[in-house]
Amino acid sequence: MDERREFLRHTLATLAYRAARAVTGAPDEFAGFDGAGRTPGEILAHMGDLFDWALSISRGEETWHSSEPLPWAEEKLRFFAALEAFDALLASEELIQAPLERLFQGPVADALTHTGQIAMLRRLAEYTKKDEDFFRAAIAAGRVGVDQAAPIFEY
Questions:
Q1: CATH classification of the domain holding 89
Q2: For residue 47, what are the contacts with CB-CB under 8 A and spacing of at least 6?
Q3: Nearest 5°: phi and psi at 50?
Q4: Is-above-0.90 flag for pTM?
Q5: Would 152 be classed as within a structural domain?
Q6: Most buried of the four, 3, 17, 61, 77, by CB within 10 Å?
């Protein structure tokens, strides 16, 4: 497999790991927390839209759709399903009809930023979780679903 494609897949796995940490254990009411700007539910819906868009761009059929947020549990599943669909395309032999660098700089980097926003909003909403050393995390290309490896080092 192309090294750049594999690196992008590892980036998606990193995103999935961090996003899972940001959303897992947050109660349903967190989705509507108003910390100034978009709510966590709106941000997560946008993140799902980003990967639907990335998939469409990669197939040469660029389409954008702004989704209304689903209930929190459903929105989490939708986001990870969109991430899994994009990763599956990258893992396949199918021709990617967009530059990988642009897929990284657009939807992937945007989603990484939004993951940080959700984590910050979670702290503001006082739904705290332990911090973690992400350098030591068990992240592997292809593991992009909501079920992630347990933290190796928390503090």
A1: 1.20.120
A2: 19, 79, 82, 111, 114, 115
A3: -60, -40
A4: yes
A5: no
A6: 17
pLDDT of 128: 87
Does residue 26 belong to any structural domain of this protein?
Answer: yes
Q: Quick count: other Cβ atoms within 10 Å of Cβ 18?
A: 21
- Is the CB of residue 18 less than 8 Å from the CB of residue 139? no
As a whole number of angstroms, the distance between CA 87 and CA 140 comes to: 12
In a domain, 107, yes or no: yes
Q: Single out the residue of 54, 52, 49 nearest to residue 108, CA to CA.
A: 54
Does 122 map to a domain?
A: yes
pLDDT-derived band at 94, boundaries 50, 70, 90: very high
Count of domains observed in the chain: 1
Long-range contact list for 81-86, CB < 8 A, 24+ apart? 81/48, 82/47, 82/48, 82/49, 82/50, 82/51, 82/52, 82/55, 83/12, 83/15, 83/16, 83/19, 83/51, 83/144, 83/145, 84/144, 84/145, 85/51, 85/55, 86/12, 86/51, 86/54, 86/55, 86/58
